[in-house]
Fold:
Amino acid sequence: MINKLPEDLPDCTVFLLGKVYQKAHGDFKKILKPFGLTNMQHLVLEGLWYRQGTTATELGKFLILDKATLSGVLERLVEGNWIVKKEDSEDARSSCLYTSAKANTMKEQLIDARKQANDELLSDFSMEERILFKRFLRDLL
Structure:
């Protein structure tokens, strides 16, 4: 898990959360590298697997991402042939988002990669600790 920190380090939750984020993000980035995806792109793909046909606005709300961040990620996923934008049949000003055949072929592998990253990060935790940890993180959102 995290390298042992000096005992005299100030008790700073923000610092600790930041260091854990760096570790988790870095480890997952390495796992995703062979797929040519970033962590954020993977998050968006997983979101779309749960919400095929959603708009970018709806997806942003679902994933708690701001419009500016999501916009760039969506562009790169379209360029990489990971997702497809189709005109919304009810509102021509809006597009609906779908995962591509390429993404759907890789779905199981990519979800397994995310599960592997989670398992490695939480490997020192008991099942009860994992459940509590996730609950605490959700409570901080």
